[in-house]
Amino acid sequence: MDVRRVKLLAIVAAVAFGGLTLIAWTQQWFTLTLTSGQVLTVAGQIAAPALSALGLASLALAAALAIAGAVLRHVLGALEVAIGGLAVSSAVAAVFSPVSASTAAVTAAVGESGATAVAALVSSVSVGMWPYLAVVLGVLSALVGVVVLATARRWPNPTRRYETASGETSAQTEADTTVSSWDALSEGRDPT
Fold first, then answer.
1. Residues 6+ apart with CB under 8 A from 127
2. pLDDT tens digit string along 108-143?
3. Measuring CA to CA, which residue among 57, 125, 58 is closest to residue 95?
4. Cβ contacts of residue 84 below 8 Å, gap of 6+?
5. Cβ–Cβ < 8 Å for 152, 77
6. Alpha-carbon span 82 to 69, nearest angstrom
7. Is 150 exposed, middle or buried (0-12, 13-18, 19+ CB in 10 A)?
8. Rounded distance, CA 144 to CA 49, Å?
9. Global pTM value
10. Nearest 5°: CA angle at 29, between 28 and 31?
């Protein structure tokens, strides 16, 4: 496969998985039935609040990957692996302990606080598909980081189309030329 295509696919995948993680974070994760018969729905925002930051970090990382040099691409690849791993751990923690992840919602609805008191109030928990999707997205994000680490050395470097041979940007060169022309006019010389 062409290296440019791998770079493009890695960037698009990081954007897609970051965006989907944010979507999963906003959805309903758990439905709790309390001993009083009250039914509470708990979104990912309460159950796994770290996912929002991780999804946004993945989006920012994708933007940085588009313009990064070789060394920075390796750093960004390692960060993407870490982002994916943290997303997985956050979602798995919520899935394995939905009552603990929902403590804030139960406390807000009933007024009871403390893990033991909240656990005593919950009679049943139903887990939706979104936390499992968040786990899968975290794994896929980590895999994108592994692909970046494995292929980053062969990616093309960012273009330098706006730089002159001396390293100045074309805007700097134009400004210097304009200043030089005004100085020449001030001195009585014709700059043309």
1. 29, 30, 95, 98
2. 888 888 888 888 998 899 999 999 999 999 999 999
3. 125
4. 17, 138, 139, 140, 141, 142, 143, 144, 145
5. yes
6. 20
7. exposed
8. 23
9. 0.78
10. 85
- Side-chain-side CA neighbours of residue 117 (13 Å): 8
Specify which residues 126 forms β-bridges with. Answer: 31
**Which residue type is seen at 66?**
A
What is d(CA 152, CA 139) in angstroms, rounded to the nearest whole number? 20
Q: Mean pLDDT throughout 147-158?
A: 87
DSSP string, the chain: --HHHHHHHHHHHHHHHHHHHHHHHHSEEEEEEETTS-EEEEEHHHH-THHHHHHHHHHHHHHHHHH--HHHHHHHHHHHHHHHHHHHHHHHHHHH-HHHHTHHHHHHHH---SHHHHHHHEEEEEE-SHHHHHHHHHHHHHHHHHHHHHHGGGSPPPP-TTB-TTS-BHHHHHHHHHHHHHHHHHTT----
Which residues are bridge partners to 40 per DSSP? Answer: 32
Token pair for 46: 């309460």
Q: What is the dihedral of CA 144, 149, 152, 154, to 10 degrees?
A: -110
